[in-house]
Amino acid sequence: MFRNQYDTDVTTWSPAGRLFQVEYAMEAVKQGSAAIGLRSKTHVVLACVNKASSELSSHQKKIFKVDDHIGVAIAGLTADGRVLSRYMRNECINYSFTYESPLPVGRLVVQLADKAQVCTQRSWKRPYGVGLLVVGLDELGAHLYYNCPSGNYFEYQAFAIGSRSQAAKTYLERRFENFTDSSREDLIKDALISVRETLQGEKLKSSICTVAVVGIGEAFHILDQETVQQLIDAFEIVGEDEPPVPEVGDAEADQAEAAAPAAEEGAAPMDI
Amino acid sequence: MTKQRANWSPYDNNGGSCVAIAGADYCVIAADTRMSTGYNILSREYSKITKLADKCLMASSGFQADVKALQKHLAARHLIYQHQHNKQMSCPAMGQLLSNTLYYKRFFPYYSFNVLGGLDSEGKGCVYTYDAVGSYERVGYSSQGSGSTLIMPFLDNQLKSPSPLLLPAQDAVTPLSETEAVDLVKTVFASATERDIYTGDKLEIVVVNAEGIRREYMDLRKD
């Protein structure tokens, strides 16, 4: 994408019928670190790569609990994401206050999408620079949605956003038909493998990823680092169904033992 | 020309009594389960006690519609607090929030007479007692509601701590054991039920301690 004379305002159409500012906002999502979501009939899993600006700083928070039955992972301008999470939390609280029942996810994503659309049609605003993977439960089961800065939203079986998300999407496309009947554990394993796909050779450790789960009978919560590390170790030692490169698989098995104690030292000093 | 008076009131009194007693490492909160209006009974099994946070409960008597609205409001505020601070509200924090919430409606008050009970951040029992517009105080024990005029003097007799002006300084917390406190509550309600027509049916007792929250019921006279 190159600069042109139609991209200054969000309220200016290009002759080809495009709103460049909105498209630039979607670029911002692609620059953020990866976030992945997958769902089965009964559970949804979110996983994301934590990027810290330096070893001294803490990680950006990318997964937010919105309500017991709804959670969200963001990619892009995390400040925008934080503000939208606060909006989502308020909507859930107000809905349950009035109706004494949980806000259906489908309703929430529409409200979010409408909110995003407003920013694409006001000259004094800019679009939100964040993509949201909204996961939640309602009476019909588990859902995963993607909300775009454009104001569009889509429901997915599995999806990935952010930088190098294409690698994760390729993996998910190969495997998504099995997800509906996956067990909770297999779903989490697939999420972690997808995260590893986006890492391009960097070792997968619990300190660089965050995993959250919501399911029937299980409120939305973020898994703690120890649990995540155990899950990683479990499938790396055994070797997964589709190892990316066999030699790398063996080398990882050797390093797995050394990696386990190192993982704690490698964890960010200011882990929130 | 006589002054015109309102032909309806936004308030009603649903009666009932509440008590809370703080111990060294526990807190007992109790209330009867009778809900009435005028000389009629609306329910013999209505709970006046609600859990606001992990270790913080509130018992309220007065106008139950206002009580319910107040409980919902505090629950929503607690959710927001948890999202922002990633932890539960402590009992003293909830105490202040309740006071502010009540005063917010200073000029159309919640007709709700509350006692807040739970554990403070050190794990010691704490009880806060309120009036309808948010004036509150941390105490070792308290009662509110229709039976409070009968209950409070008895609690004073059994539990009142020596004057704070005396030396050596003494704790505001009562030196009762948990079982003694529960027995005291049962005695106190049985007595109040005898003479207060709005108190009776069943007694709900909730005990908060380090292990968690325990609920107990006792039958009271149904007349």
From TrEMBL, chain A:
Pfam families: Proteasome, Proteasome_A_N
Keyword Nucleus: yes
Listed Acidic residues bias regions: 242-255
Keywords assigned by UniProt, alphabetized: Cytoplasm, Nucleus, Proteasome
Major localization class: cytoplasm
Chain segments carrying region Disordered: 242-272
Entry-linked InterPro entries: Ntn_hydrolases_N (IPR029055), Proteasome_alpha (IPR050115), Proteasome_alpha-type (IPR023332), Proteasome_alpha1 (IPR035144), Proteasome_asu_N (IPR000426), Proteasome_sua/b (IPR001353)
GO CC annotation: cytoplasm; nucleus; proteasome core complex, alpha-subunit complex
Alphabetical GO biological process terms: ubiquitin-dependent protein catabolic process
Subunit structure, interactors included: Component of the 20S core complex of the 26S proteasome. The 26S proteasome is composed of a core protease (CP), known as the 20S proteasome, capped at one or both ends by the 19S regulatory particle (RP/PA700). The 20S proteasome core is composed of 28 subunits that are arranged in four stacked rings, resulting in a barrel-shaped structure. The two end rings are each formed by seven alpha subunits, and the two central rings are each formed by seven beta subunits. The catalytic chamber with the active sites is on the inside of the barrel.
Similarity field: Belongs to the peptidase T1A family.
Record's protein name: Proteasome subunit alpha type
Organism (species): Trapa incisa
UniProtKB/TrEMBL annotation, chain B:
Keyword annotations from UniProtKB, A to Z: Cytoplasm, Nucleus, Proteasome
Gene Ontology cellular-component terms listed: cytoplasm; nucleus; proteasome core complex
Location within or outside the cell: Cytoplasm; Nucleus
GO biological process: proteolysis involved in protein catabolic process
Source organism superkingdom: Eukaryota
Biological role stated in the UniProt entry: Non-catalytic component of the proteasome, a multicatalytic proteinase complex which is characterized by its ability to cleave peptides with Arg, Phe, Tyr, Leu, and Glu adjacent to the leaving group at neutral or slightly basic pH. The proteasome has an ATP-dependent proteolytic activity. Component of the proteasome, a multicatalytic proteinase complex which is characterized by its ability to cleave peptides with Arg, Phe, Tyr, Leu, and Glu adjacent to the leaving group at neutral or slightly basic pH. The proteasome has an ATP-dependent proteolytic activity.
Protein family: Belongs to the peptidase T1B family.
Oligomeric form and interacting partners: Component of the 20S core complex of the 26S proteasome. The 26S proteasome is composed of a core protease (CP), known as the 20S proteasome, capped at one or both ends by the 19S regulatory particle (RP/PA700). The 20S proteasome core is composed of 28 subunits that are arranged in four stacked rings, resulting in a barrel-shaped structure. The two end rings are each formed by seven alpha subunits, and the two central rings are each formed by seven beta subunits. The catalytic chamber with the active sites is on the inside of the barrel. Component of the proteasome complex.
Protein name stated in the entry: Proteasome subunit beta
Organism: Trapa natans (Water chestnut)
